[in-house]
Amino acid sequence: MKKIIISIAVVLANGIAGSCMAQSSPSDYTIREDAPHHSALILNTLMRTTSVAINKRYHELSAQDRAKLHSWWQSIPEGDEPPFPVNGLKPIHSAMLKAQDMLSVEGELYLVATVDSNGDVIQVKTVGSPSPEMTKFAASVVGLTKFKPAICSGKPCQMEFPFRYNFTLEN
Question: Tell me, what's the pLDDT at 124?
Fold first, then answer.
């Protein structure tokens, strides 16, 4: 049985969580199997990112995650924010995992989504891809994703958001 490994480098953003009374879930940087493949009780890690928590919405991200996010852009002035998927990154990453499970490709997928001031993706550019099928699938997923728009000088603005995946197969 082949093992699918996806490493991710994704730009993310951060804000301060709302109420002090609100409990937040711990940050998650991985996606694991729903059930073990064999008799072992250990779930394999299917996807791991070192960038930011994938289970958080923009306003739930830590200051550390925000700093990692901002480092992906050449310059984001103090007080400005990049765009960010409204439901966080996990739905997008989960879709990429399913596509990789079906397509079994190897190589880097690098997309850049242009997000308008309403949070809609108006263009998806592919900078690199392991296959035309993965390009089509990934562009569709990203293109249908709703984003929190970027904030420039206190107002919603258009900005790009990059996605980078490295697909590898292990036996």
Answer: 97
